């Protein structure tokens, strides 16, 4: 199951990515509020190799007239995506500073790749561990899958 999820996620990312690589932050410039959005979100853990990480979870989200996809709460996730204005770096702006996290290095990488309101998004962020990810995202539904 894990291998299948990673394979499907990787294939979806490759289809959406085309020849462009993931950038640290590449906000889209929206063309029109009614343009449809389709995104693939992944959460990956370090695999022990120097080459990268293994996708452990992935969700597909389509936001248009309706919210759909494999994301467990597509409407809330679409609302959260729209609140970023296409700049997913805004997800990092309101961390829960009251929650302590261990100083253990076990990196978690989150990615968002696709189209938001007609503009291309390729975004990636690496957290030192899962606790730091949870604390930083502070309940945001976009990566709650």
TrEMBL record:
One of its GO terms (molecular function) is serine-type endopeptidase inhibitor activity. The keyword Disulfide bond applies. The keyword Disulfide bond applies. It comes from the Bacteria. InterPro entries: Prot_inh_I16_SSI, Subtilisin_inhibitor, Subtilisin_inhibitor-like_sf. Keywords: Disulfide bond, Protease inhibitor, Secreted, Serine protease inhibitor. Pfam families: SSI. One of its GO terms (cellular component) is extracellular region. It is found in: Secreted. Its main location: secreted. Homodimer. Belongs to the protease inhibitor I16 (SSI) family. This is Subtilisin inhibitor-like protein 8.
């Amino acid at each position: 199951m894990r291998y299948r999820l990673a394979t499907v996620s990787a294939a979806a990312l490759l289809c959406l990515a085309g020849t462009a690589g993931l950038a640290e932050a590449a906000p889209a410039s929206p063309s029109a509020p009614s343009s449809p959005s389709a995104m693939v979100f992944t959460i990956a853990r370090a695999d022990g190799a120097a080459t990268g990480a293994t996708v452990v979870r992935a969700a597909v989200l389509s936001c248009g007239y309706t919210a759909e996809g494999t994301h467990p709460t597509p409407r809330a996730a679409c609302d959260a995506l729209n609140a970023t204005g296409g700049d997913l770096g805004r997800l990092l702006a309101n961390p829960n500073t009251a929650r302590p996290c261990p100083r253990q290095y076990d990196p978690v990488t989150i990615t968002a790749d696709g189209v938001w309101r007609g503009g291309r998004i390729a975004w990636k962020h690496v957290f030192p561990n899962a606790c730091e990810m949870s604390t930083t995202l502070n309940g945001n539904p976009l990566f709650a899958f």
